[in-house]
Structures are given as C-alpha cells and as structure tokens.
Specification:
90 residues; mainly alpha
Length: 90
Amino acid sequence: RFKPPEGDVSSKLEFTLRDAGPPFVQASRDFRFAAAVASFGMLLRNSQFQGDASYARVLEIARPAASGDTTGYRNEFLEIVRRAKQLSGR
C-alpha cells in the first residue's frame, strides 16, 4: 500500500513474483555476503526467523564472498563472526 505525501487515501498495489530458479551459489558475491551479514544479525539477536543459521554457515557463505576485499571490511566481518562463534561455544 502507498499514499501520496499530500494524500489521505492509500492505494493497494499487487505484483506477481516468480522465482527465476537459479541456486544461491549463483547469486552475486555482494548478495551472498549481504545474506551472511543478515544471518549473523539474526544469530546475535536469537531471532525467531534464524531458521537453521549457524556461525559456521555464516562463515561458509561469507568467506568466498569476501575474496577481493579491497577495503578490509569484509575480512573484518569474518573475524568478528569467528570471535562470536568462539564466545558462543557453538
């Protein structure tokens, strides 16, 4: 639903979504890294939506997606996940 900034009535929008079907491993490196970061956040919050996420799986997804990190931020994220895994005992 949306409402124009000056409006009083909202309008409903509906879109059909279709899964194109490519597997997760074929997603872009940025997408896979973002998924790892989101999973890590859910683990830290003990989110009810974390599913079967684990620190090991976050590292498994993030490591290849961190290759070519020119800023060092992705490698720093990997270190933070490793430390969180150690502290959690999982």
